[in-house]
Automatic annotation (TrEMBL):
<dbReference type="GO" id="GO:0046481">
    <property type="term" value="F:digalactosyldiacylglycerol synthase activity"/>
</dbReference>
<dbReference type="GO" id="GO:0019375">
    <property type="term" value="P:galactolipid biosynthetic process"/>
</dbReference>
<dbReference type="InterPro" id="IPR044525">
    <property type="entry name" value="DGDG1/2"/>
</dbReference>
<keyword id="KW-0808">Transferase</keyword>
<keyword id="KW-0934">Plastid</keyword>
<keyword id="KW-0472">Membrane</keyword>
<keyword id="KW-0150">Chloroplast</keyword>
<feature type="region of interest" description="Disordered">
    <location>
        <begin position="103"/>
        <end position="127"/>
    </location>
</feature>
<protein>
    <recommendedName>
        <fullName>Digalactosyldiacylglycerol synthase</fullName>
    </recommendedName>
</protein>
<dbReference type="GO" id="GO:0009707">
    <property type="term" value="C:chloroplast outer membrane"/>
</dbReference>
<comment type="similarity">
    <text>Belongs to the glycosyltransferase group 1 family. Glycosyltransferase 4 subfamily.</text>
</comment>
Length: 180
């Protein structure tokens, strides 16, 4: 018979945004994890119970075992999606700012061809490498063929109706809408 669990314990302080923790929260489980900067993202979820001391740990586990996890709001469900994670990655990598800046400069150049503008300040090599890697990650994770070439399991990029029911996620057409 299938056994249902409602608590996920992750004592690690070295995972830095652990995928297993995100999956447990997305499935509506309690997560007991260390009060540590690597777990800052998860604190916004009501089912995330953090501890500082061994005594706190025991209290959080007891709290989880005695209570019931709260259902996630649609916003919380979305923030645990790959799309939201990619958007956060783009925002924190400043790649979106780079793309917006280039677009504005192009528009300004088209509007004011006679004005002289100072040359753009040179970007450091590490910034250019980081931006390039961020863009490559964004492109690779969004293309099924490239995902398959890098070893991904076929059909795992987007989840189906049954998977959304099992994990209590938004329906696939809400998560990945088809336009047109």
């Amino acid at each position: 018979s299938e056994r249902s669990y409602k608590v996920f314990i992750n004592p690690s302080v070295s995972d830095v945004l652990c995928t297993a923790t995100a999956e447990a929260l997305a499935m509506g489980k309690f997560v007991v994890c260390a009060d540590h900067p690597s777990n800052d993202f998860f604190r916004e979820f009501p089912n995330c119970l953090t501890y500082k001391t061994p005594e706190d740990f025991v209290a959080r586990v007891k709290e989880a075992m005695e209570g019931d996890p709260l259902p996630l709001t649609p916003e919380q469900q979305y923030s645990l999606s790959w799309e939201a994670a990619t958007q956060r990655f783009m925002r924190y990598s400043d790649l979106d700012q780079l793309l917006k800046t280039k677009k504005k400069k192009k528009q300004n150049n088209n509007n004011n061809n006679n004005e002289k503008k100072p040359p753009p300040s040179p970007r450091s090599i590490p910034e250019m490498v980081d931006s390039g890697l961020a863009f490559a990650h964004y492109c690779l994770t969004g293309n099924e063929f490239l995902r398959l070439c890098t070893g991904a399991i076929p059909g795992t990029r987007d989840y189906g109706k049954q998977h959304s029911k099992d994990l209590h996620l938004l329906p696939p057409l809400v998560e990945n809408p088809v336009y047109g």
